[in-house]
């Protein structure tokens, strides 16, 4: 999320500046929605004059409550094509227009009588005041404006059990893929001929549609479980989330970010890699969890130990059933296993997967590479699976969701 309003939409900023010029002192706080509709590039609409509200924070609370209770209000606003939501209020000798667009970009205009200044970081508001308003504005923006348009090529529709005639927005996509609490789900992408990686990574198999599904599945997770091999091969790190995505997670009772949990025996992890990158800003992703067997944990490098929360499971190899149990006992109910093949194979053989979300990309590659589950360990997965949902994007990627049939 950025606080630099100059990166946002100039039409939204200019509408806010115009409002700032016309603001009268002594008004109660107001909630604004901004739309891009001709003939004006940005049209502000006042949704509420703050009846019975003393502060901007109260006003936002009232509207969040209204939106949570009245689905119709949200639908009408989305039909109007809202692009940004803002709040207008006074503080000290300033009036403030603070707004956020559906990408999570913030806009701040501070007005003093007949002059306005753009401010990048809300200097006069004080960090904490702005932080608490930002979370509320983010939730209202998500509810009233919805999500940004998907990237080129990433429009997705229902295919089965019912074919869809309209493109799914990110909330609808999430509804199709929402996981059940207590479930462990595997997330994977493969070519038609079953390849899980090309030249050492899965990048060539992915697509804008796959990225949308990937984000929707991860957005639901408490923990992202990943093998150390993938962390090394893909220089894996936490995915940045927009303010709106964080607001959506919070509304579901989830932490702002999922926690990454790496499974490793060697504990060979690069402390300068993206997984351990220092983050700044309002929401900092949590420290990664490192799941290791007792034999490895006993000799962990102190520098690594400082950067992780250690979970010990098993003696010489990680006992994955114990690891999953420990994660659950820490309150992590929705686990998404991102692979790679060694970890996914071991999870399959241990019978620990409840769901699979896989993308089949329309590529036939005929090159060497791993499958989505490695078969090198002892035993085999003996479960049967049932297709629950399939979606398709405009490039022909298939998104399949399977549930394990009861044993
Ligand atoms: N297509 C897809 O959906 C997808 C998804 C993810 C990854 N990939 C690709 O898959 C490749 C990497 O796969 P991979 O199979 O080599 O790696 P991986 O499954 O990500 O990780 C394997 C490593 O995890 C640790 N591990 C797994 N099970 C363990 C256990 N029971 N006890 C202790 N440690 C355990 C070990 O780490 P240590 O070596 O540290 O001991 C092991 O070497 C990459 O090319 C990546 O791009 C594809």
Automatic annotation (TrEMBL):
Q: Does the keyword Oxidoreductase apply?
A: yes
Question: What Pfam families would the database entry show?
Answer: RibD_C
For the Bacterial bifunctional deaminase-reductase C-terminal domain, which residue ranges apply? Answer: 183-379
One molecular function GO term is: 5-amino-6-(5-phosphoribosylamino)uracil reductase activity
The alphabetical list of record keywords is:
NADP, Oxidoreductase
**BP GO terms, sorted:** riboflavin biosynthetic process
From the UniProt record, give the pathway where this protein acts.
Answer: Cofactor biosynthesis; riboflavin biosynthesis
The name this protein goes by in its record: Pyrimidine reductase, riboflavin biosynthesis
Q: What species does this protein belong to?
A: Micromonospora sediminicola
């Amino acid at each position: 999320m950025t606080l630099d309003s100059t990166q946002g939409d100039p039409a939204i900023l200019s509408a806010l500046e115009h409002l700032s010029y016309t603001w009268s002192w002594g008004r109660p706080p107001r909630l604004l929605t901004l739309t891009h509709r001709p003939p004006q590039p940005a049209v502000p609409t006042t949704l509420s004059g703050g009846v019975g509200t003393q502060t901007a924070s109260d006003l936002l609370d009232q509207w969040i409550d209204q939106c949570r209770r009245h689905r119709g209000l949200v639908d009408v606003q989305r039909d109007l094509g809202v692009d940004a939501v803002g709040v207008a209020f006074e503080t000290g000798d300033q009036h403030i227009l603070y707004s956020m667009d559906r990408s999570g970009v913030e806009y701040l205009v501070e007005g003093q009588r007949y002059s306005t200044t753009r401010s990048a970081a809300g200097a006069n508001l004080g960090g904490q005041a702005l932080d608490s308003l930002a979370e509320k504005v983010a939730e209202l923006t998500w509810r009233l404006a919805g999500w940004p348009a998907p990237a080129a090529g990433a429009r997705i529709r229902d295919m089965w059990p019912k074919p869809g005639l309209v493109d799914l927005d990110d909330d609808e996509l999430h509804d199709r893929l929402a996981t059940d609490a207590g479930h462990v789900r595997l997330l994977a992408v493969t070519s038609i001929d079953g390849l899980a990686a090309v030249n050492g990574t899965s990048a060539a198999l992915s697509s804008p549609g796959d990225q949308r599904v990937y984000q929707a599945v991860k957005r639901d997770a408490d923990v992202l479980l990943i093998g150390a091999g993938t962390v090394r091969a893909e220089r894996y790190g936490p995915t940045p989330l927009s303010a709106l995505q964080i607001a959506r997670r919070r509304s579901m009772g989830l932490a702002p970010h999922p926690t990454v949990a790496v499974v490793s025996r060697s504990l060979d992890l690069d402390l300068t890699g993206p997984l351990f990158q220092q983050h700044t800003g309002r929401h900092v992703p949590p420290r990664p969890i490192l799941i290791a067997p007792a034999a490895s944990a006993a000799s962990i490098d102190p520098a690594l130990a400082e950067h992780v929360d250690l979970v010990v499971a098993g003696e010489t190899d990680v006992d994955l059933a114990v690891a999953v149990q420990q994660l659950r006992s820490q309150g992590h109910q929705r686990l998404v296993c991102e692979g790679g093949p060694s970890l996914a194979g071991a999870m399959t053989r241990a019978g620990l997967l409840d769901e699979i979300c896989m993308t089949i990309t329309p590529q036939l590659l005929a090159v060497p590479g791993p499958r989505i589950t490695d078969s090198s360990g002892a035993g085999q997965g003996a479960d049967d699976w049932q297709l629950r949902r399939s979606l398709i994007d405009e490039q022909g990627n298939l998104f399949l969701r399977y549930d394990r049939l009861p044993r």
